[in-house]
């Protein structure tokens, strides 16, 4: 219930939803004859939309998240490679009987690379349905098709396909793994998501080596006007705002230890 509520709240307050809400307020203000109020709301809406879509604001917001946890030296003995879901379009994949990677597909590709370098390691895929309505294959199901199709033996895969949030990723992975593994556990997820993911896995009692992938920024962009790719700018802004809101909420609730969690020592 809490997971669905959180997703519903985000659907309401995400940047595009807010711009739509402001436009509705503009129309209401005009309808009741408040032309000055309508003008202020319209100017505010235009300013926000310009900042989110035609500037590098999103990259400035996402860079601190991506820079927080750097890749360490990997230990020699790796017991498991934990790949978090979020990089597969399960609906398209099921319809076309393929594995369709999305922007976060680096998670699965990097998991494959490490699996080939460390043939003794299990590959733990944690990811169910991220949307409110479960359609298509879960990330775990799609990942099974991806890894076995790349030559990874099925008995190396540990599939957790019920989780719908990062907190559930961590708790259900801990439950599946049981006792401590003989070797390190490497956690793979998008760099912007890594601080929150690391905090949740440690709260669940799993000591992980954080291995971020899927970088969206260079890490040191200046603020600038950027009219070359508005859709990408808006997507990056939305992703960054969503992650900062999640960190604020979960740290306030005490589910993670900080709004800006640390990673590898």
Task: Describe what you observe in this structure.
By secondary structure, this protein is α/β, with parallel strands linked by helices. The chain has 2 domains: 2-66 and 227-252, no CATH class; 71-213, Rossmann fold, CATH 3.40.50. It is built from 10 helices and 5 strands, in the order H-H-H-H-E-H-H-E-H-E-H-E-H-E-H. The protein has helices at residues 2-13, 15-31, 35-54, 57-67, 90-96, 106-117, 139-149, 166-177, 194-203, 230-252, and strands spanning 78-84, 122-126, 157-160, 184-190, 208-213. The protein has a 5-stranded parallel sheet, with helices on both faces. Strand 4, helix 9 and strand 5 form a beta-alpha-beta unit. Helix 4 crosses helix 10 (230-252) and helix 8 crosses helix 9 (194-203). The longest helix is centred in the last third of the chain and has 23 residues, at 230-252. It is elongated. The protein starts with a helix and ends in a 13-residue tail after the last helix. The mean pLDDT is 91.
CATH topology of the largest domain: Rossmann fold
Assembly type = single chain
What proportion of the residues form beta strands (DSSP E)?
5-15%
Unreliable spans are none
| Number of spatially distinct domains | 2
Q: Report the CATH superfamily of the largest domain.
A: HUPs
**Mean of residue pLDDT values:** 91
Proportion of residues in helical segments: 40-55%
Question: In angstroms, what is the radius of gyration?
Answer: 20 Å
Structural class: alpha/beta
Strand order of the biggest β-sheet: 3-2-1-4-5
Q: What composes the largest sheet?
A: 5 strands, parallel
Number of helices: 10
Work out the number of β strands. 5
The CATH class of the largest domain turns out to be: Alpha Beta
Q: Secondary-structure element sequence?
A: HHHHEHHEHEHEHEH
CATH architecture of the largest domain: 3-Layer(aba) Sandwich
The separation of the N and C termini measures: 35 Å
Principal-axes shape call: elongated
């Amino acid at each position: 219930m809490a997971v669905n509520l959180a997703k519903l709240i985000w659907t309401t307050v995400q940047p595009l939803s807010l711009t739509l809400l402001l436009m509705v307020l503009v129309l209401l203000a005009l309808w009741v004859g408040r032309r000055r109020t309508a003008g202020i709301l319209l100017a505010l809406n235009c300013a926000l939309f310009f900042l989110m879509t035609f500037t590098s604001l999103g990259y400035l917001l996402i860079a601190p998240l991506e820079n927080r946890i750097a890749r360490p030296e990997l230990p020699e003995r790796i017991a498991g490679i934990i790949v978090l879901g979020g990089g597969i379009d399960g609906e398209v994949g099921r319809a076309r009987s393929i594995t369709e990677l999305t922007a976060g597909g680096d998670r699965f590709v990097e998991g494959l690379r490490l699996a080939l370098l460390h043939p003794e390691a299990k590959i733990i895929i944690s990811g169910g349905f991220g949307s409110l309505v479960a359609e298509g294959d879960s990330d775990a199901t799609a990942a099974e098709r991806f890894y076995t199709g790349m030559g990874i033996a099925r008995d190396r895969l540990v599939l957790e396909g019920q989780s719908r949030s990062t907190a559930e990723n961590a708790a259900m992975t801990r439950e599946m793994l049981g006792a401590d593994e003989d070797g390190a556990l490497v956690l793979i997820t998008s760099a912007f998501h890594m601080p929150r993911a690391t905090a949740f896995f440690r709260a669940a009692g799993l000591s992980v080596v954080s291995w971020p992938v899927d970088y969206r920024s260079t890490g040191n962009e200046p603020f600038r006007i950027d009219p070359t790719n508005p859709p990408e700018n808006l997507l990056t802004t939305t992703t960054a705002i969503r992650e900062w809101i999640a960190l604020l909420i979960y740290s306030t609730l005490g589910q993670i230890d900080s709004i800006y969690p640390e990673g590898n020592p």
